[in-house]
Amino acid sequence: MIKSLFFLAALLLSMIIHISAQSHVATKGSFCRYAKNSLRNKNVYAEGHTQCPACDAEDAKEAVARKAEDKRRADVRAAERAAMALAEKQAQETALKNKRAADKGVTELAVTMPANKANTGTPTKKAFVAVDGMAAGCLYDDAETDNHLVSSMIFDINQGERNNRVYKLYKDINYFVLNNKKILDNDEFKACIGARRPSLNPENRDKFPPSIGIAILNETAGNHVISDLVDATGKRLLNDDNISTIVHFSGDYFILLEGKSFGRGAAPHASYDFPSGAIYNYKTKRRHELQPFQSANRRHVEVGWVVNGTYMDKKKLRDKSTYDAFFEVITGDHVSMIYYITKEGKLEADEISK
Questions:
Q1: Please, are residues 191 and 179 in contact by the beta-carbon 8 Å criterion?
Q2: Share of the chain above pLDDT 90, in %
Q3: What is each CA distance from 322 to 208, 270, 319, 346, in whole angstroms?
Q4: What angle do CA 59, 289, 80 make, to 5 degrees?
Q5: Is 234 helix (H, G, I), strand (E, B) or coil?
Q6: How far apart are CA 344 and CA 323, in angstroms?
Q7: Which secondary structure element, helix H or strand E, spans residue 325, and what is its range?
Q8: Do 256 and 121 have their domain in common?
Q9: Greater confidence, 287 or 22?
Q10: Is the same domain home to 202 and 62?
Q11: Are residues 36 and 121 in the same domain?
């Protein structure tokens, strides 16, 4: 009899504990969403305040459900894009074939040496040529946009036309120039930014890679525009709708900034805030996430205003002879991460501070 009573008491106690753990702690000023003057979801540290395990459990369950739903939607979008790409592949190949046949621009010249005693039997050779100083195969920007300047590469959804500094004032250039011929001259893109003309960047010192350019799409994702790398056919190479801004770093490296810009960063830095970002090598497909600035109330990426620009003491930078370009990412108060593209084409980084 005593054992039975002890067993029932233990069972009752465990049930009470379980019910208590599942119920909300709605004490005034606690971290329960049902409490009066609740501190939940406010910029207040939880330490030292009454907690609510039930709210925590509900939040965890909702987070799992949101993650599953986000994955489902992403899978659906990926499947739709794959199906569309498959359906349009043959049409794109036909269009490209026709465009190449109609394009009178020269990518390569076939140079046949005349036959004589000195060079009898010399085979036909091919030599790359430049048209008006522009390297064959490069997608040039008729607006001469500074693709190193972050502010020039940020496009807002409701932004008006820009002064392109050439001959079409206040009109975005939505085409590229390849071998002195316009390509992709349609309404698919809002703006096209490529290699800068020789007058601004002699001998392509920034090493903007051939056959690709930066395009601002005429479509949006949530509250921001979509930017992507495209080839000469207009094919998107990244297919990531989270990317709103792309800055050319150096050579095959690009800076990808995601989401809508929060605006200018805190003084004294001339910087810009984004939800996240990365440095991407489009040939190797390797992506290096930018180190975030973690403040008390939010986590974001704060990037410098331009490639090869910093407010830090430049004496703390590496010797100029060892790198082609650098880019500053502010990671804290008076602390920055400096990313370098070395002369060997490698990505390296140093943390420096005032």
A1: no
A2: 34
A3: 19, 26, 6, 11
A4: 70
A5: coil
A6: 8
A7: strand 323-332
A8: yes
A9: 287
A10: no
A11: no
Instruction: Using the Cα atoms of residue 221, residue 224, residue 230 and residue 233 in order, give the sign of their dihedral.
Output: positive
pTM above 0.85, yes or no: no
Pair (104, 186) in one structural domain: yes
- 71 and 176, same domain (yes or no): no
Measure the CA–CA gap between 321 and 324, rounded to whole angstroms. Answer: 8
Residue listed under structure tokens 């001959």: 167
Burial of 204 (0-12, 13-18, 19+ CB in 10 A): middle
Which of 29-38, 118-127, 228-237 shows the lowest per-residue confidence on average (mean pLDDT)?
Answer: 118-127
Give the residue, 207 or 117, on which the prediction is more confident: 207
Are 139 and 178 in contact by the 8 Å Cβ rule? The answer is yes
Counting Cβ atoms within 10 Å, is residue 278 exposed (0-12), middle (13-18) or buried (19+)?
Answer: middle
What confidence category does residue 312 fall into, taking pLDDT thresholds of 50, 70 and 90? Answer: confident
**Whole-Å CA distances, 95 to 4, 103, 233, 329, 353:** 85, 12, 9, 42, 53
Mean pLDDT of 91-95: 61
Whether the per-residue pLDDT at 226 is higher than 90: the answer is yes
| Average pLDDT for 62-70 | 88
Which one, of 264, 243, 249, 256, lies nearest residue 307 by Cα? 249
User: Mean of the per-residue pLDDT values for the chain?
Assistant: 78
Q: Measure the CA–CA gap between 36 and 33, rounded to whole angstroms.
A: 8
CB 141 within 8 A of CB 153: no
Place of tokens 């390797």: 286
Same domain, 118 and 212: yes
What is the extent of the structural domain holding 135?
100-353
- Cα 310–316–320 angle (5° rounding)? 80
- Rounded to whole angstroms, the Cα distance separating 278 from 234 reads 23
H helices present in the chain, as ranges? 2-22, 53-102, 150-153
Q: Token pair for residue 315? A: 């004496």
Per the structure, the count of domains in the chain is: 2
Q: What confidence score (pLDDT) does residue 316 get? A: 92
The string of pLDDT tens digits covering residues 318-336 is 999 999 999 999 988 888 9
